[in-house]
Amino acid sequence: MHSPSIQVFVALVLAATSVVAAPAPAPTAAPSPWEIEEALKERAVEKRADKCTFSGAKGYSLASKSKASCSTIILDSLKVPAGKTLDLTKLPDNTDIIFEGETSFAYHEWEGPLFSVSGKGITVAGTSGATLNGNGPSYWDGKGGSGGVKKPKFFQAHDLTDSLIEQITILNPPVQVFSINKVKNLVVAYVTVDASAGDAKAKNTDAFDIGSSDGVTIKGAKVYNQDDCVAVNSGSNILFTGGLCSGGHGLSIGSVGGRKDNIVEKVSFTDSTVTKSVQGKYFQTIRVKARAGETGAIKSVIYSGITMSSISKYGVLIEQNYNGGDLHGTATSDLPITGLVLKNIKGSGAVASKGYNVVVTCGSSSSCSNWSWSGVAISGGKKYASCTNVPSITSCY
């Protein structure tokens, strides 16, 4: 049974995601930092039985073996050996995991993940100054997940219910960071992903990839990377708010299509900044990607209060002809994009002169419908000449 404080905290934050179901374009404000801080303080002072501390190289194996008997697991400067997952899956309900110092992961060419967690009522937290260091420079070769050395994915957050991840700092991820899949009511608060040291050679360092989940709130994230800040591939009732995305590919829906689950519904990106989006082949602030020739649906997606600067290629890119690359071939109509809202999007002079301010490629007028755009001010780039079936409420410019 949840403690009152964690119930209040999760309820407060997840309440903000309910607004995406409403037709009004402006989402309800997320809970204030003060409300979150107070709830976390209450959670922190609870008396917990069976507190276990694991440290160093020996602590790795002991933590996995002892996880069922510890209600609070403290990982102090843990050293995870090469080719091994720090496996904290199938935890007892209401287990707390606390990272202290630097958790390091030895080099090994494999798929990962480096860390995995699952359970109900789980809290994963970092103390001040704590980091999880993925040893990225040893892997970065400019090829990411598409070639070169095999690189482990980092943080697998699957099968979590009514859970919280907060104040975690991920440093130097080899490739993708948070894989959030099959979760119900997860709050991710004040997390930092820092792959800035890899600007020359790191690739595919997506911060948050979300799939097949219902009720995910990401609040106050700071991301410095070379790929999507957040990508929602499937799921519903998802909120990304108060975030900073620097160096990567911005705020993305998809690509959607070609998976078992191809529905994205009720997603909001609010009050966030995207800057220095210049890495790799695709660099933009807002991107909605429907795969050409596939079926599914993208419904009720809101972008509100987004500020962009230093964008190399696209300010806004909405496409129904994604095929692994942007704007390839003919746009198709079997994966409609409906109820798309853009409100108060600020990007005066934000796009490079060789880039494009707004690009829309739809398969038909009916496959891109019921859109609402207001206060969209993006400039600096040029007009894209091959837009198709653009809804009347906007234009390519």
TrEMBL record:
Signal peptide start and end residues: 1-21
Reaction(s) this enzyme catalyzes, per UniProt: (1,4-alpha-D-galacturonosyl)n+m + H2O = (1,4-alpha-D-galacturonosyl)n + (1,4-alpha-D-galacturonosyl)m
Protein location: Secreted
SUPFAM superfamilies: Pectin lyase-like (SSF51126)
Source organism superkingdom: Eukaryota
Keywords, alphabetical: Cell wall biogenesis/degradation, Disulfide bond, Glycosidase, Hydrolase, Repeat, Secreted, Signal
One GO term (biological process): cell wall organization
E.C. no: 3.2.1.15
GO MF annotation: an example: polygalacturonase activity
Active site: H249
Cellular-component GO terms for this entry: extracellular region
Pfam families: Glyco_hydro_28 (PF00295)
UniProt family annotation: Belongs to the glycosyl hydrolase 28 family.
Protein name: endo-polygalacturonase
Organism: Hymenoscyphus fraxineus
